[in-house]
Amino acid sequence: MFCANCGVKIEENVKFCPQCGAPTQAEPQTSQEPVQEATPQVTPAVVENIPAEPIQEVKQEPVVPTVQQPVTPVVLPKKKKKKTGLIIGIVSAVIIVALAVAALLNLGAIKNLFVKMTTSDEGYVQHVYEKETSNIAESIGNFITSLSNPKQNTIEAADAEVKIELGDKTIALLEEALNMELDWVKSAAIAYNINTDGNLTSMDMDLKLNDKKVVSADVIIDMENQELYLNADGLLAKPVRISLAEMTGGSYPAMDAEEIQEMANKILGCLPDGEVVESIINRYSGVILECIEEVEKESDKLEIGDVSLKCEKYTFKIDEKFAAKVVKAVLKEAKGDKELKNMIKDLINSEGLSDVFAGVDADEVIEEFEQGIEEGLDEISADMFGEFDVDLSVWVNNAGDIIGMEIELEEGKFSFLAPENGKKNALEIKLEAAGTKIVFSGSGVKSGDKLNGKYTLKAMNMNIVEIALIDYDTKTAENGYLNGAIEITPAKDIVSMITSGMDDAPDSIKSILSSELKLRLDFQSSEKTVNFGISLLSDNKSLIKLSMNTEAKQKTSIKLPSNAVDAEDIENPEDILSVSGTAGFFEKFVEAGVPRDLVDSLLNSGFEFGNSSSSEVAKPDYDWEDDYDWDNDYDVSGGRDNQFDYDYDYEFDYPEAVETEIPTSLVAALDFLLAR
């Protein structure tokens, strides 16, 4: 082959020309005006044995390469690769991830299946029980740990309110009973703030009527000096200092915040380590479960409400032989249990119980403990427990979770079933004994963390109450915080039984009882708040509601008032009451909705018997001899038949009222608070 650039002959498969260095694979570019050059004639060779025919001369021009400029190779467009491989790879990855997630989600079921296939029925029952007791042991251990190690941010201040609200039907019922208009009554509440600062505890209280503040009072308790400071906003000219010992007749014990905390720490110091308790519970539950034998297995199907679930039922007997076996196994384990012995020693030597175990040697106690176990092992026998026979059954789902339990005795049986199937779950608690049958059952649906369900309590095949669970938060409940609502509705048969004997009851009461009555409980709680409400509803309208709300706050410093007056130095309560404050005291009730005429009547009644500095109301002053005519106004007839003829024509002489700017009722109330 020849170089397309310089025309030099080169060998095959050479990529570059040895003469000019041009690439050999690029095709030469033809000149736009190719020059045709003369080629020499070549005489063909004589070929033998060819028939004699006229031979034509073929002129062949030699190819003489021409020198050309380097030509850029023509790059052809590449064909696009197909994406089939990429798509297959993505789909495969998704499938693998999905299978991995499914495997993780069903890890319990896979592990349970493996245990079931590789162990006996007795071993499998031990396995499912150990899993349940392990969860219980962990909860107990965590609880003890939380008690032994309280959080540093202990709540020392909170806002709270207790409120009662009346519905229209209740107000109408009260109006009928009291024969007075009460449509202005809507609600009453006490709101207060509690704050603790060392040995000082303060409580600021507000009395509210129809959500309007009418009375305010502040109380500070000094536990170190055993004193209480009282101040009523607008009523007292100065705070009053009261001795708690005198106020309670000497029954108020002396307390100090540091002493209380020290005492609490001593008590908490007696508690064992939470992890140790968990370990002991797990160990001894395993010892007991190893005593299970002769387990009967059967396939079963639980159906409660609209929840249906296939499962397996395992039953074994608990009798006097089983009891003796368990006691012996536990004693043998306890004999060499160093963890248990150390826990007993720590309890005896704890500072909080030093007075209880004064003079007791822990080592001697352990020695007696071991000796008692030795004697017990020699004496334990089935005869000690008499004769009894109990069938204990458990229902287990495909994940190895216990979803039901039943204890059957000769006198009756008790069962607890709680199957789940997807988002649906059910509950049945049944007690049968002495011819009596009580059943609490129902089902619900879980959406996210919220559970809604309806349940019925029956006794002797008669509905008693129906219970609805509304938006119950199962997630927060795991941490001990209740959120949701419960409605309790009496069954129609029960209402009929109650109302059948109330023919003489007022129509308003009959109307309420004939309506759809419900008792509703509302819960809302978190780490910093607790809100609870209980309402009685009639046709879904509130008759009366009691609510209690609490919210944790940051504590603030407390200062004792410097201008306080000792209660012992107050000769007349009027001296400490504020004239300007008491003048507008009752006006706040009017602003809250109390009718003016009712407030005025309360004010007037306070002046009727004059002013008094005593907690006892002044009584009429009359003379029976002078003001009562026994001959004319009292006639006895019939001898011994004690029939009297009264003449109500006598008069009493009342003392004249003493005018004052401060209502007598407030004076008497303060006099009572001062423990005079």
Search tags:
28% strand, 19 helices, 676 residues, 21-stranded mixed β-sheet
Into which percentage range does the β-strand content fall? 25-35%
What share of the residues lie within helices?
25-40%
Largest sheet: 21 strands, mixed
Structural class assignment: alpha+beta
Q: What would the average pLDDT be, to the nearest integer?
A: 77
Task: Spell out the blueprint of helices and strands.
Layout: H1 84-105, H2 107-118, H3 121-148, E1 157-166, H4 168-178, E2 187-197, E3 200-209, E4 212-222, E5 227-232, E6 240-243, H5 244-247, H6 257-269, H7 274-289, E7 296-304, E8 307-319, H8 320-335, H9 338-349, H10 362-379, E9 389-396, E10 402-408, E11 412-417, E12 420-421, E13 424-433, E14 436-447, E15 450-459, E16 462-473, H11 474-478, E17 483-490, H12 492-499, H13 507-514, E18 517-525, E19 529-538, E20 541-552, E21 565-566, H14 579-583, H15 585-591, H16 596-605, H17 624-627, H18 630-633, E22 634-637, E23 643-646, H19 664-673
Parallel strand pairs: 6-21
Antiparallel strand pairs: 1-2, 1-20, 2-3, 3-4, 4-5, 5-6, 7-8, 8-9, 9-10, 10-11, 11-13, 12-13, 13-14, 14-15, 15-16, 16-17, 17-18, 18-19, 19-20, 22-23
Helix pairs in contact: 3-7, 8-10, 9-10
